[in-house]
Design a protein that fits this description.
The protein has about 160 residues and is mostly helical. The protein folds into 2 domains: about 30 residues; about 120 residues, Four Helix Bundle (Hemerythrin (Met), subunit A), CATH 1.20.120. Helices cover about 75% and strands about 5% of the residues.
Length: about 160
């Protein structure tokens, strides 16, 4: 091919590759900037649901002290569940799947999910106890709004 044809093709290729890299980078940083609540609600990493309530700076500080370790623990549990699901897929990929091992893996995943749900419930009750009575209903309204907007578990509901 002639040089005059190759240069525009090279330029188009470079622009295309750059746009793909920019898109991937954008999505990566967007994902890093958010946290997914146990109810499936996406929240900015430095933001907490209770901050939408009319709380004093001292109340927010106390609640942040509760929320940050909670998020870390939930993320660890979520990662453990994801690893469990990967293990389940590996078991199912086998030419002759071991149904006993599959059943044990499903039970382990279920137990992890149950533990996470209990941790969430406990945390929400702790937060509720820190809130003034007049703000408790609004707090649970915010949680419910998040669940309704983004789905509580990613499950499709059919009617």
């Amino acid at each position: 091919m002639k040089n005059s044809v190759l240069r525009p093709l090279l330029l188009i290729s470079l622009v295309f590759n750059f746009s793909i890299l920019a898109t991937v980078g954008y999505h990566y940083f967007q994902r890093q900037a958010t946290w997914t609540s146990p109810f499936g609600h996406t929240i900015k990493k430095g933001h907490f649901l209770f901050e939408q309530l009319a709380l004093s700076p001292d109340q927010i500080k106390v609640m942040r002290g509760q929320a940050i370790p909670f998020r870390e623990e939930i993320d660890r549990q979520r990662l453990g569940i994801a690893k469990g699901r990967q293990g389940l897929l590996q078991l199912m990929r086998q030419e002759v799947p071991d149904m006993g091992a599959i059943e044990a893996q499903v039970k382990a995943i279920g137990l992890s999910q149950q533990e996470m749900e209990m941790r969430v419930a406990s945390h929400l009750l702790t937060v509720k106890g820190l809130l003034p009575p007049e703000m408790r209903g609004r707090f649970f309204d915010l949680i419910e709004q998040g669940m309704n907007q983004e789905g509580d578990s990613g499950c499709q509901h059919t009617h």
